[in-house]
Amino acid sequence: MELVQEHPVWKLGRLNHVAIAVPDLEKSRNFYKNVMGAESVSEAVPQPEHGVYTVFVSLGNTKIELLGEYGDNSPIKNFLEKNKTGGIHHVCIEVDNVSSAVQDLTKRGIRSLDPKPKIGAHGKPVVFLHPKDCGGVLLELEQA
Amino acid sequence: MELVQEHPVWKLGRLNHVAIAVPDLEKSRNFYKNVMGAESVSEAVPQPEHGVYTVFVSLGNTKIELLGEYGDNSPIKNFLEKNKTGGIHHVCIEVDNVSSAVQDLTKRGIRSLDPKPKIGAHGKPVVFLHPKDCGGVLLELEQA
Fold it and tell me: Which residues form the VOC domain (chains A, B) (predicted)?
C-alpha cells in the first residue's frame, strides 16, 4: 500500500497578483493603459497604512499591481534604490486559510516576515514569507 | 464629441506565466509541490534550444514557470549570479498577434530584445521587450 501524503490543513489557490514597484507610477499606469492597451487600469489609490500607492491592471485571469512610494517610510523604498527603473517586487497567491498556512509553514521551516497575518491592501488577511526560504522570491499569501 | 483612442492593431490578453529563475530546480520544485501543495507541478523538462530546464506550477488561473540553468550559455546565468538564491525573472502576457504587437510597440518607442518573434518554450511565437522601456520589468509577449 502506498502512503499518499495529503497536504494537510490549508490549500493553495489562484495567483492573486504580481506586484511591480515603479519609480514613476503615472508613467507606468500610462504604459499599461495606453501603450499595452490593458482592458482595465485603475486610478492610483493611496494606501497610507501600507506606505504605497496602488494601481491595478486587470489582465482577465489575474492582475498586475503597480506600486508607487507613499510617504517617507515606504516598504518599497529600499527596493527602488536598488532597482532604479523599477522591478517585480512580489507575487501574491491566495490561500483558503492564511493563519493555518502560516502555522503549518513555520513548522516546515518557512519563515514569515510577521508572526501573524495583517490586513493587506485589499482588506483581507495577508502574510509575507521570507524570500530566503522561497527561492529568492517575496511571496505574499492572501486569504481568498 | 469625445475622441476615444482605440488601441490599434493587437490586443493584450491573459497573464500566461510568472517565471522564477532558481539555483536548485529540484529544491524549488519540491517547495511548490510538497511545501506549498500546488495542485499540479510538472517534471523538469530540458529545453536545450532555450538554455533552461522548465517546471510548470499550475495555480488554477495561471502558472509559475520555474527556470533552472541548462548548459554553459544559459540566458539566466547572469541573473543567477546577481540573485544567488533566485528571483522573479520575467512576466509573460498573451497577445492575439505578436508580430503586430512588436511592430506597433517599436513605433511607440518600446524596444524588443529580438527584431522578430522567436518560437518560445511552449512552441508559440514570443518576444521579449526591453526592461528599460517597461518599468524595469522583463516582459515576454506570447501569441495566444
Answer: 14-144
8 A C-beta contact, residue B98 and residue B141: yes
- Using 70 as the pLDDT threshold, list the residues of chain A that sit under it: 1-8
Integer distance in angstroms from the first to the last C-alpha of chain A? Answer: 35
Residues of A in contact with B13 (CB under 8 A): 59-60
> Which CATH number belongs to the domain containing residue A113 in this structure?
3.10.180.10
How many distinct structural domains can be found in chain A?
A: 1
In which domain, by residue range, is B117 found? 12-143
- Judged by a CB distance cut-off of 8 A, whether residue B61 touches chain A is yes
Question: Is there a domain that residue B1 lies in?
Answer: no
Q: Which of B88, B104, B108, B142 to probe by mutation at the A interface, max A CB count within 10 Å? A: B88
Number of neighbouring beta carbons within 10 Å of residue A9? 13
CA-based max dimension of chain A: 59
Supply B63's cell numbers: 502558472
- Across the interface, whether the CB atoms of B18 and A15 are under 8 A apart is answered yes
pLDDT digits (tens, 9 = 90+) for B66-119: 999 999 999 999 999 999 999 999 999 999 999 999 999 999 999 999 888 999
- pLDDT score at A1: 47
Q: Note the pLDDT of residue A70.
A: 97
ipTM of the complex: 0.91
Residue B49 inside a domain? The answer is yes
Assess if residue B24 is contained within a domain: yes
Of the candidates A60, A108, A110, which has its C-beta nearest B14's C-beta?
A60
- % residues pLDDT > 70 (chain B): 94
B137–A88 CB contact, under 8 Å: yes
Query: Is A1 among the domain residues?
Result: no
